[in-house]
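Re: export button greyed out
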Amino acid sequence: MLQNIIDELTLYEKMVLKALESLNYESSPEKIAEIQNMDIKAVMSAAGSLASKDLIEVQKDVDEVISLSNTGKEYAEEGLPERRILMALKDEEVIPMKDLGTAAGLHPSEVKVAIGWLLKKKWAVIDKGNVRITEEGKSSVSKEHSDELLLDKLLEVQKLLLFNPSKLISEGFNLLKKRKGLIDVKKESKYNLKLTENGKQLVEIGIEIKEQATQLTHEQLKTGSWKNLEYRSYDVHAEHPETFPGKMHPLQRTIEDIRQIFLKMGFTESQGSILESAFWNFDCLFQPQDHAAREMQDTFYIKEPKYVNLPSKELVEKVADAHENGGYTGSEGWGYSWDVEVAKQSVLRTHTTCVSARFLAEHKPPLKMFSVGRVFRRETITYKHLPEFHQVEGIVAADDITFRNLLGILKEFYHKLGFEVRFRPAYFPYTYLSVECEIYLPDKQTWIELGGAGMFRPEVLEPLRIETPVAAFGLGIERLAMLRLDIKDIRMLYKSDIGWLRHLPVKME
Ligand code: FA5
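Workaround output, generated via the alternate export path:
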């Protein structure tokens, strides 16, 4: 185990461990860099990875470091301005204020500050426009003040750590920091590397430093000499940063997978618009004008535009006949007076079956068409209901198409997505026979309805002049996505929960 760890160490890591072994298990990185002839950056980077393997401990101390600024250096060399006045006073004892600059060789801008410090240090007093040396001043002529001593020291050693300073340094620093721009204060980090118990055990086993191959040359590969080189072992179980590659949203992924299935089954793709006339959404599908699904509480009616143009007069009249008396279908129709104004109303489509109706008005069988799109219903939101969701709609029309073909297509479709569905007899105004496809939800111990299907009724087909049987289906996509993603609530698909999205597989089974 420990040998494995040694084998996986880089050359630099081994060098740092070796150095620490020889330095009594602890050292500064600078010292290690020196004895191993390494770059300090290489030492620090190796130290970082050794610390992450718990082989060494990196201790960090942040210290304040002081040094002289340019002005500070000048004063250290030539003396502080108040010292220069004191030296002039030493001979004269009294100097008129106005002559101070000249007598001490100071720039006029320095004089005021210098007098301030002269008085503060009690080296002189001001007496009727004259500056007079004090006894304290006289005794200070040959004795440096703490700030001057610190200036001298800094001139000599260039920088000093403020950590645990001597009384003299701290006194001097307190005075000098009151003056602008004499002292620079910086923070400096100091590191100490120390072997941990694990690190010590490792070096006791013995670390051998051998040149390791990092990049193979063309030559080494060609001649086979790579076989005799030393390599560093890799830990394939090492922790690695998690990566979250960009991917399609799972709902969109499901839509794309559904499209691929139908395209591969030879269906043509069609599209409709989400703003539809009640005519195509309901009337053309033989849905009576007083049908419950048309009520305001189930369907979104649009204010602007309130009405939509209807198709040819001929088709509208045939649909009206089918509703009123069955037209030429042999049916009695619904037996009420059909209102064109109701059919003109614009709605947000409540299902994608309107795309199938439009497609049949424009194409002659044989045909296979599918369409994916959003639909809208005034629904109360629940774990399986949304007011806005997607459906995939499809029709297959040909002379020999039967209800059994329809069941076969649906079975095959769900099977391709990995589901086994059961069929239950159902009712839709526009189909006969009609079914619903369902799948079992073990968690909720209930069957969930995935889609509706059936054979379009003559009352739908005759006005559209379709003479072959038409198998039709409309399937919910969000409910399918729920099952595929194993989520218990349909709302999750619209939540933008980044944590959940990140951990989904890039490709769904
Ligand atoms: C229809 O929409 C029919 N037009 C389907 C059809 C087409 C039948 C062609 C015959 C021929 P239904 O209202 O049952 O049927 O909706 C179909 C599917 O849409 C449902 O099985 C369900 O999976 C999904 N669905 C319905 N309402 C919602 C909702 N509020 N939220 C999420 N999914 C829904």
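The first strand starts at residue 26 and ends at 27. The button fix ships in the next patch.
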